[in-house]
Amino acid sequence: MKARCFVPFLLLTYAVAGYASEPDGSSDIDGVGRYPGSVIVQYEATSYDEGAFPLSANSRTDRNAFDSVVVAGPRTTVVYDVPEALNATVLGVFRSFSDGLQDAGFVVDWECVGSRDTCGFFFPRTLFPGEARTRFQSFREFTNLNGEAVNMLSAKKDAQRVILVVGKSPRSQIVQYAVDAYVLDDLETEDLVLTTEGIASDIAQAGTATLDGIYFETGSAELTDQSRDSLATIAEFLRANSDDRFLVVGHTDNVGGFGDNQQLSERRAQAVIRYLERYHDTNVGLLRSVGVGYAAPAASNATETGRLKNRRVELVFERASGE
Question: In a designed cystine with 182, which of 141, 161, 265, 292 is the match (CB 3.0 to 4.6 A)?
Answer without folding.
Answer: 161
